[in-house]
## 1
Amino acid sequence: MKLIHTRIHEFLHCMCKVMKNKDITQMQDDILLRSAIFRAVEQGKVEFIAHMGKANRNIYQITNEQDMTVFQSAADCRHEEKIYSLAYLYGFFDRIEIFRRRDKFDNNMLHIVGTFSSFAQTRVDNIRGAALQLQRERQWFKEVESRTVEPDSLEEINHTDQAPPRTVFTKYHKELMKERGRKVNERNCNFLYGCRCSCCHYDVCCSIHSSRWK
């Protein structure tokens, strides 16, 4: 295991050395490099991305097939405490651009978090119950919302949904909300049924007890 870890570090060092002097265009055109970077983002490999970023900060400006940057992709994949936090290595005005930047579908950072992509679904599938899944999604949305450095981003309309981020969140989490509501109703019905059964049992016991004393 230690040998594998050493080899990975050696490989990472070689990659960093190769890409150190590449400009954005060269990195964007390097399909293998770009694929490796975004695969690492999807898997939450923060150490890999951090090392690459130290070697060449241009990696944070290259984009994937959806025209998402590393930060946008990290937000989409729900790697909140990992790669996404690397955005705070940038200055205030750079962070404004990071949050306001639009992807292929005209989504800013909050719109992306408001959608419920296949990556997001995979992440919440590890959480039991629709209520907790929805709670986790809301927490993530509010976390990104609280870090948004420009309030106007909260009200920006995208072309795809013609809606601001909060409306986008509601739209794409509608099924999860319905599922949560259905589970709540089921629990309430089960509770009422249990209460009725208990009451009926109590009434029967009282009737039997009364008949014995007649």
Note: Residues 1-62 form one domain.
## 2
Amino acid sequence: MIFGGMTHTVQAQTDPSILLKIAKQAQNQLENQINQDSSDKTKQLFREGTQQMKALEESLANNDVESAKKYFLSTMRIFKEVSQQLTNNKSPQAEMATLKATTEDPSADLLRLQDYSDNIKTIAKKYNTSIDFSDLDDLFVIAKKQIRAKQFDDALQTISQIKQITIDLNNKIREYASQQEQSRAQDYAQKYLEQLDRLIENAKNQGLSENIIQKLESARESLSSTTDPHEIINQIKKIISIKEQFELTKNDRLESRVMQVEKTLLKLSNSDKLTKSDLENAKKTLQTIKRQLAQGDFDSANELLRSLATLLDQFQ
């Protein structure tokens, strides 16, 4: 090894030019080992050693033997350190080869993603979304083929794509669900406003105090200006509290039945079980019931509502 016994070499040499020859041999040997994948530190050390070797060459040209010996020792110490670094450090290619050799079968991860994907599909169906899952399904097929072929690194890349797509799809479904929640809340608020209008009209007809009527009208205004689902719920709770405070809840059960009949009518209107004429008559009857509730004629409203509900039950 050219890096061993450097001090003895210097002391034994009678021809100082041999020092330059030894240094150049070391330089050539290291130059053949250093490549673009070597560390920056190793490359920098090699440059420093080369500079010391140039100083050695200049010293010999000036017949400065003592300086030449000093630069020779410095050069060889640096080159020895470079050699040690090249020996100890694995190249990135070797590290990648090791990683590839130790890559585990990702079947378990793929199975978990498949279960998660199935859940997403179920939720998407629940909200009647038009999301296309074909790209995701294709990736699952590809990943399974890669695993069967023991191409685990390729399978991991495919699984990474699957994860990203499932995240994106989940976000889309959440957004869609939020929109539906807001739409349902607003529909419910609108129906509740109709009930509240009937309650206010009934309160006026009964001659209730202006204070009660003002509270109800103020609550109605707050509810009508709200679009956030959670705030709609809060406003309705406040209205219920007002109704309970002033004992205005005796027709709540009737109002609830009215809402149920409205749902039944909507369902039947999208089918052929009820003729157009019968459907129109049922809607007119429902409007009559609402007027009776607003006027405080609860007995008549209850009787008519019972008859209408019985009629509609026959067509469900």
Note: Residues 5-13, 97-101 have pLDDT under 50 and may be disordered.
## 3
Amino acid sequence: MVIRFRPRKWITLAHCASPSQWTLLNVTTGAHTNIDFPDLDAHHYLGTADGLLVLGHKRTNIIHLLHPFIGKTTEFPSHYAPSTLNRSLRVNLSAINGAGTDDSTILSTLVISLRNGLRQFICAKPSDKLWAFVQAINQHSASIVDKVRGHSPLTFGGRCYFTTSDSMIIALDLTPGVEPHMVCLLDKDPWLVNHQETIIYSYLVRSHDRMLMLRYLFGMNLLREGGFNEEDIFMCQDCPSLVEVLEVDLPRRRLVTQHGIGSRCAAFVGASHTVMVSTEKFPRIISNAVYLNYFMQGLFRHFGAYCFEDKTAISARNFQDRRIGKNSPCACHWELEDYLMCDVEKGYHM
């Protein structure tokens, strides 16, 4: 798990022909290579953490991190210990929403966010016997942070960060001898205080040496309450909508508005993880655009992509006739943009 050897600019593409065959693709240079890991037949692929594959053994539920180039695996526990029980419970692999690594500890810590109503974080080092629940330690955290699911885990500068739907940014305090607990680095955006009825989806994206927040807002009161440039608001399903890009300034704990994500790249956003792709190497993908995941496009019938250059929204894709589960998407038959729109939002049915 050495930091400088992690393939964080590479993504893993699965094939339907064989669960053990994968394609590794560099989203910056376009380089790719095919690999075969026979051991993958016995594992569920749960996502990535800073370029490393997160795998769960189908029989034992033991979680592994796999370096896709050198084949080295790191083993993590199969059980966790809720603070309210005196016994350990098996990790439910289907509840894993996303993962990241935190290198503030001597041995790097794997941090996992859970879904299906659990809205919790668990973490462990390779030497630990059990996963630990990440605790909220003050009234503010207990009433807000502990009840909100973390989105788009992102490893940046050796730390693991999450954002919530209402744009809070959370890190973890993993000080030895103290129970792991959440730290709110950036509270709710003051601009959103008057927009209680606005629905918000926030995602963290790594862009070279910067951390960006991509934020999608929609609701009738976007126009009524003000505070936003009306020229940036567009209509989607007869509802005012807005897509924003903000740079996360961690030292000053603030968000700085940007005018797009760049003329040579595009972002794919989901609750499991996010991907920034070079549009020079993949010209079929629209430049300076953000692509919503299949869940947002299908269930909520939102747009498929938003282009900052001309401020236009592109119609949603139809994923209803495709399998969204542990055997899909498939790089054999899918275009890269369709694959990524599904991969960033896991929909496992184990």
Note: DSSP finds four helices and 27 strands in the chain.
## 4
Amino acid sequence: MRSTKRIWQVSPLVPSQIQPIMGETLDNMFYVMTNTLAEPCFTGGWGKPKLLQDIIDLSSHAQQSDNYEARKTLITSNIDVTALSETAKDKEKAMLINGKFKSPAAYILPKESEECEFQLIVPQKKPSEAMPLVIQYSMTGDHGFGLRREIGYKLLKKHKIASLSIMNPFYGSRKPEEQKKSSLLYVSDLMCKGIALVCE
């Protein structure tokens, strides 16, 4: 049988000593994200060492045991949700509910990201039976609810599917003051955002 060998090519934007293989792939990505984009990401570096260690410990323990206390604290149904406003949309026969709650992962997030804002689109009249609900997260660069809200109205009207849109940490009203646009300051921000979204 003829064997094949995978050949890796080095991008001209990356120093020749950085080869995109195995663990060094991360170094390659880091270089590109911090040096070649119009709004570079991770300009602050990896982040605080203690936070990085906390993330590693949480991941390790959560995989090892279903009874790990930190895991049960993060994945919880005991969340106080505040409804900020309710608006009837007669044309769509929908009710738009704006609300917020404190993220279960608030302790690893910057203060601006600790509260999770959301928009819930449901029928004006309570359905006679349970209906499906889709969760919409922010797309890259999506710092508002406008597009997802319109999608939610269509899902409800055409398919009778309710919609819950969550504002991602580090986006929109949850964006840290020193962050420019969608460009995360630290590598740890990306990890924290992922953890928070799963928990929320």
Note: The beta strands are 81-89, 94-102, 115-123, 133-136, 162-166.
